[in-house]
Amino acid sequence: MKKGMISAPQPEAVDAGADILNLGGNAIDAAIACAFVQGVVDPLMCGIGGFGSMQLFMPKLKVHECIDFHGKAPETATPDMWADRIEGEARDGFGFILKDHINDIGYQSITAPGSLKAYYEAHSDYGVLDWKTILQPAIEYAENGWVVRPHVDFWWSIKNHFGRTPNPDRVKFSKPGRDLYCDAQGNLKVVGDKVVNNDLADTLKRIAKHGADIFYSGAIAHEIIKDMNSNGALLTINDLKNYQTKRLKPLWGNYRGFNIATNNPPGGGIMLIQMLNILENFDLLNLGHNSSDYVRIVCEAMKRVTIDKDLFVGDPNFLTVPTEHLIDKKYAFEQSNDIRNGKIADVKRLSTKTESKDTTHLSVIDSNGNAVSMTHSLGMPSGVITSGLGFMYNGCMGVFDPRPGNADSIAPGKSRFSSMSPSIILKSGQPFLVIGAPGGTQIPMGLLQSIINIIDFDMSMVEAVSAPRFSATSNLIDVSNRISRQTTRPLEDLGYTVVRNPNTYGFAAVHGIKIQNQEWQGAADPGHDGIVVEV
After folding, report:
1. More exposed terminus of the chain, fewer Cβ within 10 Å: N or C?
2. Is a pLDDT exceeding 90 seen at residue 396?
3. pLDDT surpassing 50 at residue 372
4. Is 76 exposed, middle or buried (0-12, 13-18, 19+ CB in 10 A)?
5. Are residues 257 and 372 in the same domain?
6. Does some domain include residue 126?
7. Structural domains counted in the chain
8. What pLDDT shows up at residue 356?
9. 404 domain residue, yes or no
10. Mean pLDDT computed over every residue of the chain
11. Which residues pair with 188 in a beta bridge?
């Protein structure tokens, strides 16, 4: 009898989750074990210093909920503290460029991290194996070492970040980072080099013994804050002690008879539902996959939803998000008519920078039909590693709007918008797709295309995540290099500016599981290092 299936961008983490399933663990156990290992073997992508969003579906327990664990601005943050430092905005909406990159790297970029608390709560409420068992694979990878993979090497070494801090500077920001991830000559480790992180192994052992409280109010919390206080950070002990996750029912949509369950604002699920609502008004199949007309229509939907996100979507604890209006089918029909009539949307940006994609994802299902879709991240990693602790902190302050009075402006305790959209798509009340992706602002765009590939074009899970993708989160249309020029030339003739990415893959890295006729199809985006394992 099959025990489960798991897909994620890191082979070590997938195998750890599979091992947990083989030990009798459920999907929640496997997901949390996988997440802990991801934090060890992809240390700029995620970890216990990060944040994220998790959706859990457990039919026998009649549980279907989201645990949102977004980073929260420290209590010392103020709306106007960086208003005089603005140099630009990422053209696709992923953050602001400030003088001296104070929001982007270093101690002031850190928000209160929620990942560990969410892992612990999910396991405490729904896991079946012992907490120590769940952490053991991550402890072993930290202690015994892991080998730098191609995508880790690729991401660490990116220097041209279009105005943002180059990734090598993040890796080398703190002495522990240099000691861990550089060779004796100070050069970044490369593919095949081994990384041993005994400090992180010790931290995880302490967490295995004492639970999450040691991190938020116990000994580790005080070690964190001692470092923060010594280096001018915004983060305080109160930020850690007062941190709480948010437990919510999923945000629901419907597309061609499939029910879409995704996360609530300030997560990106609202964008996914909005785009699907718009595109439901078009016969995409007859347009032809990745034809010029198809790309134009999908991109115009992306642009319109991006405009609404910039104007209206943020932390619901700090502003009223017009969710019902944004996901209303009548509103989507009006937008589709504008697209059909050739109206081109205008996405306002301060400049033409780019984004960060330091995020990862996992999708799991088990033999009892339990399913988990979780996306978690460091945002733009701060580069900060406290001596003796071994993990890097998030840099979530970089995406807050430094201009007071806007939907995503800075405020104490506030979570900034995140495009994370861990989703479960159901047919007749049963999971059909368990899906999600890393990729910054491109997450909803990658998920959108993969979902359409399956529902409209009847692709397999592997075909859906492997097909060439494109995006429009600004007034430009960005395409991967496998989108034909036969497709893009007519778009340029219509007045669109098309930017061709030299990479074969891009625009999020979708990982998912398709369940159809009691058969499971898993897929890992070929643009990353990931795998799928069925046990």
Report:
1. N
2. yes
3. yes
4. middle
5. no
6. yes
7. 2
8. 46
9. no
10. 94
11. 182
pLDDT value of residue 434? 98
- pLDDT, tens digit, for every residue of 197-233? 999 999 999 999 999 999 999 999 999 999 999 999 9
Same domain, 138 and 113: yes
List C-alpha distances in Å: 27 to 32, 162, 263, 365: 9, 39, 19, 6
Answer yes or no: is 521 within a domain: no
In this structure, are 108 and 195 located in the same domain? yes
Per-residue pLDDT, averaged over 468-487, amounts to 96
For 65: left if phi > 0, alpha if psi spans -120 to 50, otherwise beta; the answer is beta
CA distance 301 to 323: 17
Q: Using DSSP bridges, classify how beta strands 476-479 and 497-500 pair: parallel, antiparallel or unpaired.
A: parallel
Q: Would you call 123 exposed, middle or buried from its count of C-beta atoms within 10 A (0-12, 13-18, 19+)? A: buried
109-146 pLDDT tens trace: 999 999 999 999 999 999 999 999 999 999 999 999 99
Residue 490, judged by CB atoms within 10 A of its CB (0-12, 13-18, 19+), counts as: middle
How far apart (Å, rounded) are the C-alpha atoms in residues 448 and 470? 11
* Amino acid identity at 217: S
Domain containing 185 equals: 4-247+360-399
**In 111-186, which ranges are E strands?**
146-147
332-349 per-position pLDDT tens digit: 999 999 999 999 999 987
Paired strand residues for 254: 259
Catalytic residues: 359
Q: With contact defined as beta carbons under 8 Å apart, do 115 and 50 qualify?
A: yes
Q: Where are the alpha helices (DSSP H) in 234-362?
A: 237-241, 269-279, 284-287, 292-312, 323-326, 329-340
- Give yes or no: residues 369 and 433 share one domain: no
| DSSP 8-state secondary structure symbol assigned to residue 317 | T
Residue 217 CA to residue 243 CA, distance in Å, equals 10
Give buried/exposed letters for 201-224 (b at 16+ CB in 10 A, else e): bbbbbbbbeebbebbbebebbebb
